[in-house]
Task: structure prediction
Amino acid sequence: MLGRKDCRELLLAADAARAADDAELASDLAGACPKAQLDTLIADASPSQALLLCGRSAAAGHRACDARAVADLEARLQPHLTLGHSDEQIAIDPLIALALEMAGKELNISWNGSDPDVVVGKLNVSIEHVTTRTVATVPDAMGNQKHVPATQHRFVAKAACQVELGDKTRVVRAQDEARDLTWQALPHFQIAPKPDPQVPPEQELKKRAALAWLRTLQKALAMNPPETVDVDDEKGCVAYGLALNLTAGDDTAAARGDGDPDRIAACEKLLGEPPGAGIPVP
Result:
């Protein structure tokens, strides 16, 4: 096996060695995996498979993936997560419902009012109208471009909502905006006035802010995956392992199997790990 230098074979064998409490053999096996071959495997793998490759190497004592690469893989993992209010009697916030309708499938996030993975509060969206003086380039009656005094209008839709991330309640914020210019008439240059800014309706701006908030929440959850994530598939098991590491403050916790024994055993079986190898994630 050491002579073949097949990274997949070596890393799986390293996990088997760890499960058998032979840390020295595990280190030798993982260390025989050529870095260039591992990099190619990671580049061609799904985020969950790539994180497992990084994790199997790390669990055997070899840091094959840097922190930036791991963070990028975590951001792209997107396990299925459900949102819900703290009281199942509370109806889904209309703006959250709109955001889920627009991007829930893409982000792999849905609503579960009775048993959510992530508890969210009411999404508050406000719109601010900010003006500043500027100069606009506009055509005169002959089509010639003229520089005229103008006002820039910024309509900023800000969204904020309390969310349970890890063991803390935090406020997740996001915003979207629309801009336009207005100016007064300049008869000397035969320039017609533009008195009103042309921007989307208020409700459209609120929908855009809610969508930006949902995308921001997905990124925050990638860095703080909940331990309640379903472990019915590979993504869920990897996310659960990442959550265990985060909660313990130890990036070897999941590989040691420091979690719910039934969930760990189910993930070992689903991921093709030998019993006792845990969930090897970086």
About this structure: The chain has a mean pLDDT of 94. Strands lie at 81-84, 109-111, 118-119, 124-139, 145-165, 168-182. The longest strand covers residues 145-165.
